[in-house]
Automatic annotation (TrEMBL):
Superkingdom of this protein's organism: Bacteria
Pfam families given in the database record: TctC
Position of the signal peptide: 1-21
Keywords for the protein's UniProt record, in alphabetical order: Signal
SUPFAM superfamilies linked: Periplasmic binding protein-like II (SSF53850)
Family: Belongs to the UPF0065 (bug) family.
Name assigned to this protein: Tat pathway signal protein
């Protein structure tokens, strides 16, 4: 009797394993983690991606905003999640530099980039320097002159130390010899709210979150960190053309999964991501939000990611320890 029971148990287990192996992904909800509060660049891009995936997969794809530590908490939660494809990360470029920032500050990283598998890039725009429209600052020359006239008094918000909103401002401060007051928040959304509320003087942001406020007349864009001028901000000069060749920074937004996720599941997610990028509603939403759709997957995304990550690590090492 015991032997029959054991055989029956083994048969059931084998059947369950086969069924699981044949299960078509996804068969249940897929969580998409954004490592920041709502309103920032990853959230602005992640929400229409998740909504489009829901239509493609016919399962729920909820956004999970898991902020803290400039994105490291949310990034680490996905890096250490079950590698089954049901927990994904919509990451910012800062994902690649935060582990190095931890090492520079004498801490053990909570994750490493190798723990996350790149799937698809959706946007890669340079940061934009914005000030309130009521500010007398109209050009980057005005801005630099004002900061130098008031050392330590001109403040900027960010999503935290070494975040994608902090690093470009640190680059500019180094390049132009500026002494500014850094005011870190828990994400890009709160950092933008602080600027709109008059708590800080300026912000370096991805174009998506600030574009509606520039169009409405609440904010003024005075410079960007790209090699060329940004579409939609055609009258805004780059810092490179203004004589700061080292001021180049892009806030890219890409989809990642835990590194050990099976190749067939990664392939399914990549295929669906490509469908998202071709979806007319998604394209319209991206354009309306001020984000430039820059879809890359497979080897193209991997090359882009590796090149940008190397540049970001060099930047962090140049910045050094932040007390």
């Amino acid at each position: 009797m015991l032997r029959r029971t054991a055989l029956a148990t083994l048969a059931c287990a084998a059947g369950a394993s086969i069924a699981k192996a044949q299960e078509v992904f996804p068969s249940r909800a897929v969580s998409m983690v954004v490592a920041f509060p709502p309103g920032g660049q990853a959230d602005v891009v992640g929400r229409p991606v998740a909504a489009t995936l829901e239509r493609i997969w016919r399962v729920a794809v909820p956004i999970v905003n898991r902020g803290g530590a400039a994105g490291a908490i949310g990034n680490a939660s996905v890096a250490r999640a079950s590698p089954d494809g049901y927990t994904l990360l919509m990451a910012l470029s800062s994902m690649a530099l935060l582990p190095e920032a931890a090492r520079v500050n004498g801490r053990e990283p909570t994750y490493t980039p190798e723990m996350l598998a790149p799937i698809a890039l959706f946007a890669a725009d340079p940061t934009v320097l914005v000030v309130p429209a009521a500010s007398p600052i109209r050009t980057i020359e005005d801005f630099i002159a004002d900061v130098k006239a008031r050392p330590g008094q001109v403040s900027y918000s960010s999503a935290g130390n070494y975040s994608a909103l902090h690093v470009p401002m640190a680059q500019l401060s180094q390049a132009a010899g500026l002494d500014m007051l850094h005011v870190p928040f828990q994400g890009g959304g709160p950092a933008l709210t602080a600027l709109l509320g008059g708590q800080v003087n300026c912000l370096a942001s991805g174009p998506g979150p600030v574009a509606p406020h520039v169009r409405s007349g609440a904010l003024r864009a005075i410079a960007t960190w790209g090699r060329t001028r940004l579409a939609g901000f055609d009258d805004v000069p780059t810092l490179i053309e203004k004589g700061f060749p080292d001021c180049e920074f892009y806030i890219w937004v890409g989809l990642f999964a835990p590194a050990a996720t099976p190749a067939p599941v990664i392939a399914r997610i990549r295929e669906a991501s490509a469908q998202v990028a071709r979806d007319p509603d998604f394209i319209r939403i991206m354009a309306a939000s001020g984000n430039t759709l820059d879809f890359r997957d497979g080897e193209a995304f991997l090359r882009f990611y590796n090149e940008d990550a190397a540049r970001l690590v060099r930047t962090v090492r140049a910045l050094g320890r932040i007390e």
